[in-house]
């Protein structure tokens, strides 16, 4: 039997891009189900979803990415999906890479990351310093390389759906991915391309980005050692 696949699209104030992103999925990738999680948007995102007949969950208050993503994972678990994909509502993620990620997941991995730097070298620019720092922290604590730890395009199997749906501290962030790797989750990456967001501005300006990267690095190096949870039974592997 074919696996049931859900695309989870957290959306906060994405009125200018949500129609393009979802319409493309509906038109070109009807084999995949999707759900938009409107995260307390203050613009017209929810009205657009309602008018267009999109499949969406409306959170009346803003819970942030972690809360929106966990809502999507709870939906996936309740509706018995086998695979869930985290997918941006701003148009940066390209759906043509979903199938290659699914093919890789079928090899026995728990998480597949859509990475910009599997086959391409990561530039050592000011923008990428934080990514280098997080990648170093992950390698330091796991001994494994994750080339694009901040990528938000991630594919999860059923076991990971259950983890994220039931564990309140599991945010879709690099520190949680690293934590799951240390517990035994099998993680790999697939080369993808990403484009600039269709419209709007990311909440992560330069100052916030620096703060975010530092928090992630500290969490990976220090905090994760105090997180509880039993290890997975199977050994894990990650791309070298």
TrEMBL record:
Entries under InterPro entries matching the protein: Glyco_trans_2-like (IPR001173), Glycosyltransferase_2 (IPR050256), Nucleotide-diphossugar_trans (IPR029044)
Record-annotated Glycosyltransferase 2-like domain positions: 7-163
Gene3D superfamilies hit by this protein: Spore Coat Polysaccharide Biosynthesis Protein SpsA, Chain A (3.90.550.10)
Short name of one Pfam family: Glycos_transf_2
Domain of life from the UniProt record: Bacteria
Name assigned to this protein: Glycosyltransferase family 2 protein
Organism: Anaerofilum hominis
